[in-house]
Amino acid sequence: MVAGAGKAGSMRGPWSIDGRMVYPRELVLVGGGHSHVQVLRTQRSAPLDARVTLVVDQPLAAYSGMVPGLVAGQYRPEQLQIDLRPLARQAGIRVIHARCTGLDVQGRRVLLEGRPPLRYDLVSLNVGSTVAGAGLPGVREHALSTRPIAAFVRRFEQLAARGAEHVIIVGAGAGGVELAFCVQARLGCRVTVVAGQLLARRPGLNARLREAAAGRGITWEIPARVARVEAWGAHLEDGRQLEADAVLWVAGAAPHAGLFEGLPTDAAGFVLVEDSLQVVGHPEVFAVGDCASLRDQAWVPKAGVYAVRQGPVLLQNLRRSLLGDPALPFEAQRDFLTLLNLGDGTALGEKWGQAIQGAWVFELKDRLDRDFVAKFQVLDAQGRPDRGGHRAP
User: Does 189 map to a domain?
Assistant: First the structure.
């Protein structure tokens, strides 16, 4: 006879079965990234057969795809924020507000700063990345890094309040390009983009981007690299100096130092996973999004679109692991629709080598972004039940 058993996944346990005490299996989600928010949302209607705990050092998650629009003044902060606490609360998930410092793989424990470790049967990592090159001289002291997002937004608003005549953007991936256009739209200043190359995986967009930038005061120092950042600007490796009011650092992804000790990693230090999203040699550990590299699909870039698409596969494989069923593979798409916010109410897009541009492209991006965030926003800025996105006035 079972005493104290409730709906699977919402069980707190322990409970008694024929006089024996049975404890629920422990699933720990570390991080509130684009994949994990999908697990939280689904847990409300189709709970996993485990006690679920979410560990986050920051309970407000920001949707990275809308950050350039926030910089441009097109969104308010609450429009791209997902408060993980009410979302987890509705799903019966415990939330622990603490920084994860690593895993005790042998003991199956999540190590926390200032708190006792958490035991797990399954653990999933969705902790994102930090920016590459942060160790270069002057970067931490003088540059505005885009990670963590909340700190970047706060510091950028301070920059916007005092104004700027010239801003340097370091990095020319999708994030760097969008920021270049959105910073120029917001501040009306000159912008210089410094990078080794422009949109490496999207050569079809390069000519369109250069054309769009020509009338906006946006210039490209490509190929070039920053050697040192100062309060007044940056030194380039070729000896030149660029004076600027601010340096924004968007120089690609780097792993969190020390977080993956005891787990296999790729050459760059990102945790190495199978197509099932399980860490190589550790099927009880999952890793998704920017913190992970697929061993057999090493070409997959660090991009939010892949973290979003990994969410449903992660959810299925967590469920299958708890049931003892074989995991399913995540098959990354070689091509996807790239949409770049140009900050002026237009956007530039590309797929299969075909470029598109205009106000309607921005409207498409805006709708897709708002619809994604609205799925996870439980409360609005006033703490009331949220009925969806709130368009900026």
Answer: yes
Number of domains comprising the chain: 2
Mean pLDDT of the chain: 89
Q: How far is residue 249's CA from residue 164's CA, in Å, rounded to a whole number?
A: 16
Q: Are 48 and 318 in contact (CB under 8 A)?
A: yes
The domain boundary, picked from 236, 252, 268, lies at 252
The parent domain of residue 248 ranges over 132-252
The separation between the first and the last C-alpha atoms of the chain, rounded to the nearest angstrom, is 59
Using an 8 Å Cβ cutoff, are 279 and 264 in contact? yes
Please, which residues have CB within 8 angstroms of residue 28's CB and are 6 or more apart in sequence? 52, 53, 54, 55, 110, 118, 120, 122, 123, 124
* Reported pTM: 0.88
115 lies in the same domain as 138: no
Per-residue confidence (pLDDT) for residue 70, from 0 to 100: 96
For 202, phi then psi, to 5°, come to -130, 60
Question: Residue 198 maps to which CATH number?
Answer: 3.50.50.60
pLDDT tens digits for range 46-102: 999 999 999 999 899 989 999 999 999 999 998 999 999 999 998 899 999 999 999
Classify residue 362: in a domain, yes or no.
Answer: no
